Amino acid sequence: MSKAFIAAAIQDSIECTGVAAQQAATDVIQAIKDSLEDEGYFTLPGFGTFRICETKARTALNPRTQEKVEVPPGFTVRFKAAPVMKQRIKEHMSPAKKAAKKKAGSATNGSASAKKRDSAPKTEATPKRSAASTTAKKVATKTTPAKAAKKAPATRTTRRTKK
User: GO CC terms for this protein (predicted)?
Assistant: First the structure.
């Protein structure tokens, strides 16, 4: 979700101009920020709660150099979804998860195409062609007058230096 999405939802809901909807979205986001700074939390009923939490000092590992780095204590914003939101997401996501598991299970347990591939009668290998016959075909098909006419002439891209 983005600020533009929120502005579009406001514009569609109250039928106002895009500029007014953009300003309303900006004001709502600023109100959330102000509430977090003043009170340390912000609750949207039916959606969830944003709250500020302290983080402790810790030692982290630089993934590139594997060097240990000291991280100072700080603050972060955490979100906890409301029970209503959790239930709605659970209902919305469960059919998709079942379909994804079913699809993944049939692919790993042997799909129909894999069974066809395994049960197909084996055929003899085709005889290898000589190198001369394959290169002759490539040369014959590679350069055609139409393609040769479209190519630009080669130009020199480096400068010559005088001695």
Answer: cytosol
Give CA angle at 51 (45, 53), nearest 5°: 160
User: What are the tens digits of pLDDT across the range 117-126?
Assistant: 444 555 555 5
Q: At what angle do helices 3-14 and 18-39 cross, to 10 degrees?
A: 120
For residue range 58-72, list pLDDT tens digits in order.
Answer: 999 999 999 999 999
pTM confidence score: 0.50
Domain ranges for the chain: 1-36, 40-104
In angstroms, the Cα distances linking 125 to 122, 128, 129 are: 9, 9, 12
